[in-house]
Amino acid sequence: MEPIAKKSLIGQRVPKPDAPDKATGRTTYINDMVLPKMLYGKILHAGRPHALIKNIDVSAAKALPGVYAVLTAADVPEMFFGVGRDNRPLKGGKVRCVRDEVAAVAAESEELCDEALRLIKVDYEDLPAVFDPAEGAKEGAPLIHDNKPGNRSLAYQFKHGDVAAAEASSDVVIDSVFNVHYVTHCCMGTSCVIADFDCDGKLTIYSQTQYPYNFKMDLAPALGIHPGDIRVIQPPVGGAFGSKLDVYPFEPVCALLAQAARRPVKLTFSREEEFINAPTRQPVRIHMRTGAKKDGTLTFRKVDCLLNNGAYTSWGPTVPFVMMRTFSSHFRVPNVDIDCRAIYTNNPYAGSFRGYGNVQATYATSIHADMMAEKLGMELLTFSLKNAQKSGEVTPQGARLNECVFAECLQKAADVTDFTAKHARYAAERNKPGRIKRGIGMASSIHNAGGAKIHKSDGCGTMIKLDDYARATVITGASEIGQGIDAVICQVVAEELGIPMSDITIVNNDSAIAPWDVGVHASRTTFIAGNAAQRAARKAREQMLNAASKRANMPADALDLREGWVVHDSDGTPVLKIDKLLREMHFSREPELVMVSEYYEPPSEPENKEHVGDMSAAYSHAVHVAEVEVDTETGEIRIVKFTSVQDVGRVINEMGLEAQLEGGIVMGIGYALSEELKIVNGQVRNPSFRDYKVLTAPEVPPMELHFIESHSSTGPMGAKGIAELPTIVPAPAIANAVYNAIGIRFFDPPMTPEKVARAIWERDSKLAAAE
Amino acid sequence: MVSQATTESQTPQEYAAPSTIEEALRSIADGDATILAGGTDLMLQTKPGGRLPYRRKLVNIRRIAGLRGVGEKDGRISIGALVTITDIANNELLKTAAPVLPQTADCFASGQIRNMGTVGGNICNASPAGDMIVPLLVLDAEVELSAWAKGAVATRLVPLSKFFTGPGRTVKQPNELLTRIVFARPDKKYSVGYIKSGPRPALEISTVSAALSAIRDNDKLSSVRIALGAVGPTVLRAVKAEAYLEGKTVNAQVVAETARLAAEDASPIDDVRATAWYRRHLIQVYVKRLLENDSQG
User: Fold this and answer.
1) How many domains are there within chain A?
2) Going by CATH, does the domain composed of B65-184 fall within 3.40.720.10?
């Protein structure tokens, strides 16, 4: 036997295990599933923003043959659920936004459901409505919830240092108001759920959720059952991006229908329903004041945020939790004073969305950095480097920046794009003739990259078993929602156990089988689940090496597991095949099976009441550079080249990493240029892909991705979480590039052709009038 | 005149799939039929809650070979109603005789829609933003309408510029079928250009599209035709701008005045896709670019 050299899978290009089935159409998504005796469910939405329900007549719907259940609020206990415990599955008394669920039916087909819904007669008495949070906060504004005076929802404050003194000592102060808009997730699979009760009243729910364990806790109060009586099955889903991080009314409604009909019920949104009734990204009005010394040192940030809560409280109005982190830690900011308030309105409501507040906050901080550098007469790179933190610094909110390579990312981004020279040249060419103007812009941000301890635990449980053929099964709490964690876990486990990735099966789709995990969010899964899988795999490895040590009569630490063999660690000489070892262990006089478990809890701490705490086990930075062309007549913006430099800790799966970054950047560009859910008087005006414009393939610009490896001391193999920064940073990079091209700032994305053309026309008209 | 009594419902009561034009015309003779060609508009409009109910009978004309094909006879080019947008993009005769049509097809929706959608359907749908209508208007095309009358096929030709009466409305009677589109092969001196707005012209529903054709003789223009899409209740001809430009030589002042008049000819609205201001602004930008022979829009 030839010696077997040590090879590593880490940093290789590894296809996602689920990719072939998805690419060839074999995958059965939840939207494709059919259970025996299954019925279909549909919801009657209010379609009006604020109204009293005077009467609901469901008699005709109930009489329709093939209809098995018709429910209104009168038929179900008055249960409240949701982040703010202000939502009910079906609304009685009054409706507070267009999406409000007033009745639901279960029938033999979706067509019958539609017919039944048309037969339901609801008498409304419209109430005065409020759509603007500033109006909603005023005295005498229509009250949306009786128990929420002043329409006040959540509020957050953080103060550090002395902002007034810092302002007095500042040489330059800038002050801007940013209005960041509504966008929505646009998952390829629309919202879908299947609910099935057994005779004992236990619920099996087939769900798209990205947090199956706390989902049980959050769903139970909407149904009045015990969380322990809920089993969550997670079939493959067509995207989530944060939209499945809460319970939304359609889920308990479907369960209530199943309970009433005594049959499994499936409820699926049409695309139009999805645009109107799925959560959005949280819109925010950000009033930011920033100061600096002549030498470029940032002195303070004072930030006032007003959030449109919409009618109910999902995760949207909690985004200040992350926004405040950016305001206080994107660059070294010695003094900060942040005040954030969410006010109820009659608009639809926001949930969590990739970037979680940081997309909004970074739009402000990165544009202000560009404005400040210009006002100081400094190059943006110099200004940024001056204020970039170094390893070991602690932010005002207590984040310890270990392995911080912010400055390296900035320098690299500038070097590979020839940023400083181009930035100066395009600014100089701005006022020369010609309808196409070029610009280059840079933006950066910081994000948690080692989980986020916002729940009591940020952990992940993992179990590994090996069979007699050296096939491993990894049972992990980490959900796969398309992000690629299955590939990462296979790599990490294969690396430790010396078996091929193809011999590993991941089980992570059933809450009755897999151990607890907090959910897919906060760029945490590779970091947390990767650590849990690595630690579990090391236990299995140790057990196997100890057994091999006895048989080979060598110390365990002189052995290694490589390519299905136990080998001498020193020279790779094969000793024993791993499957043979496992059989010998199993069928011996002292039989043992390899089956191990691990619960990994990251070394982070929750914030205290003052919002101070090292809430993530790692932090990371990204710097983006956009080079654009602006057509000054039509206002169209074309991205010529997009460059990303990101601290990834360490590359684990290069292919997965690229896909995450490219996808995230495309989402970020859409946020900057074209995507906007237009909500006028509480109504969604563009509920289709015709009028809600996500980027399509021809508009995706050439991208250049650079990975900086900072080797996190706490991450699995040194990796950090990476998934949100790609969506967070593009918009201000593009806005800064547009400014470089045409000299106009856009504080209210998206920068649509019309908005850009109008701004140029207005400026030119003013200039002409002045002449 | 046929009876106007029609039956409207969620689902058609009858279905027919004729294989000849005559059969089809007999089938729709009572005027109570919805016609299916490519289905790319119809399927969306007739789904539950959509704006268009079905009439009693659904008549699928897709099997009628006589409605396909592009040909030329006596200097007149004829395009069958069932010719798809993809067919137009790839047609060799059109590439030489009227390249503006393949060029427009290239800005038309997605590949899937182009494969299914037909030129006849695009015209009969009568959208103010109908993409193929804009270049056909500047080619001065006519549509052939056929009906079954007194035991025979009767046809009439209607200029496309007289075909539309409002959004979704045309002069086509319920018992008539649009069978083909005809236009004179443009003179060699003819220049035709087309521009459609949007950062992704293909998948955009037109905010504004514009086409201009004229005979250019040393920059002097004659037989000027300007068509504008998505800036009025129908695709329209910019008649004031055309009249002004006729016989003029292109210079900066003429360009500016034509653009201004074209914006006046239009009656754009504010909607979720754009404001009237932006539509008028784009008309001026596009007319200017078309005159300057710059269709890099």
Assistant:
1) 3
2) no
- A440 and A305 together in one domain: yes
Percent share of chain A, pLDDT over 90: 99
pLDDT of residue A727: 98
Average pLDDT over residues A178-186: 98
Distance CA B222, CA B219 (A): 10
At B5 the pLDDT is 59
Does B200 sit within 8 Å of A698, measured CB to CB?
yes
User: Mean pLDDT in chain B?
Assistant: 92
Q: Please tell me the predicted confidence (pLDDT) of residue A698.
A: 86
Would an 8 Å CB–CB cutoff place B278 in contact with chain A?
yes
Task: State the Cα–Cα distance between residues A357 and A352, nearest whole angstrom.
Answer: 8
What CA–CA distance (Å, rounded) separates A281 from A273? 17
Instruction: Measure the CA–CA gap between B53 and B34, rounded to whole angstroms.
Output: 9
The mean pLDDT of B44-56, rounded to a whole number, is: 80
- A615/A751 same-domain check: yes
Side-chain-side CA neighbours of B216 within 13 Å: the count stands at 13
Band (B202; pLDDT cuts 50, 70, 90): low
- Residue A654: which domain range? 284-452+609-770
CA dist., res. A113 & res. A66, Å (int): 9
State the amino acid at position A308 in one-letter form. N
DSSP letters, A344-383, are: E-SS--B---TTTTHHHHHHHHHHHHHHHHHHHT--HHHH
Give percent of chain A above pLDDT 70. Answer: 100
Q: CA A452 to CA A607: how far, in whole Å? A: 10
Tens digit of pLDDT for each residue in A150-171? Answer: 999 999 999 999 999 999 999 9
- Looking at the structure, tell me whether residues A465 and A580 fall in a common domain: yes
Chain A residues whose beta carbon lies within 8 Å of the beta carbon of residue B277: 758
Cα–Cα distance for residue pair A599/A476, rounded to 1 Å: 10
Alpha carbon of A104: minimum distance to chain B alpha carbons (Å)? 18
- Taking an 8 Å cut-off on Cβ atoms, the answer to whether B199 and A674 are in contact is yes
B14-60 CATH:
3.30.43
- Burial state string for A440-462 with b = 16 or more CB within 10 A and e = fewer than 16: bbbbbbbbbbbbbbbeeebbbbb
What's the whole-number mean pLDDT along residues A560-568? 98
- Express each pLDDT in B14-40 by its tens digit: 999 999 999 999 999 999 999 999 999
What average pLDDT does the segment A137-142 reach? 97
Distance CA B228, CA B164 (A): 13
- Of residues B44 and A203, more confidence is placed in A203
User: Is A609 part of the contact surface with chain B (CB cutoff 8 Å)?
Assistant: no
- Burial label for A760, CB within 10 Å (0-12, 13-18, 19+), is buried
The pLDDT of residue B296 is 38
Quick one: pLDDT at residue A291? 98
pLDDT at residue A255, as a whole number: 98
- Partner residue facing A690 (CB), from B205, B285, B297: B205
Q: Is the pLDDT of residue A330 over 70?
A: yes
Q: Where are the domains of chain B?
A: 14-60, 65-184, 193-291
Query: Which long-range contacts link A75-81 to residues 24+ away (Cβ below 8 Å)?
Result: A75/A260, A76/A256, A77/A224, A79/A221, A79/A222, A79/A223, A79/A224, A79/A252, A80/A221, A80/A222, A81/A218, A81/A219, A81/A221, A81/A222, A81/A247, A81/A252
DSSP-derived secondary structure for A75-128: GS----BSTTS-B-SS--SEE-STT-EEEEEEESSHHHHHHHHHH-EEEEEE--
Q: Which of A637, A691, A757 sits opposite B272 (nearest CB)?
A: A691
Please report whether residue A661 resides in a domain: yes
Q: Examine the domain organization and report whether A534 and A592 are in the same domain.
A: yes
CA-wise closest residue to B140 among B158, B164, B122: B158
Alpha carbon distance A151, A143 (integer Å): 6
